[in-house]
Amino acid sequence: MKKIHFTILLALGLLAGTQSFAQMAIDKGTKFINLGIGVGGYSSAGGVALGASADFGVAPNFTVGGQVAYRSFNYGYVGYNDKINYLYFAVRGSYHFNQILNLSTDKADLYAGLGLGYESVSFSNSIYSGSAFGSGIFVPIHLGGRYFFSEKVGGFAELGTGIAPLLLGITFKL
Question: By the 8 A CB rule, do 34 and 170 touch?
Fold first, then answer.
């Protein structure tokens, strides 16, 4: 996991040093859609997480939006087949650091923020089915970066406390 964190920090550092002609403006009306896969898990959470989020510019350097994600995994041993499902919803706000960091590229976007979310955890096996431990309201935090390969399409990486410690995926600027 330390290697993944180091790689992300290195990539974000390289993005910050990239030279170009303009800075990406995050302002009222800016829109991003992210589709990603969760890497890693908390405690015993296995499986692959899938998530989507949207961010909408409401003021210079500020966005608000929402996120939804799902993770499911099976585990079992002789005579048992247990399944756990996580369904995650959150509203979130982000501050975009491009202007403060004086990024001289229109391809990169560095941001961080927090939100308010609800995670529903359900558990089932051959004996029991229903709600499980861990369901409830929480305050997720995130730190992320986007890099655009074209004017409208790019990749993103986001560290956080949501459905997975690391989300990687594709981002669209609308």
Answer: yes
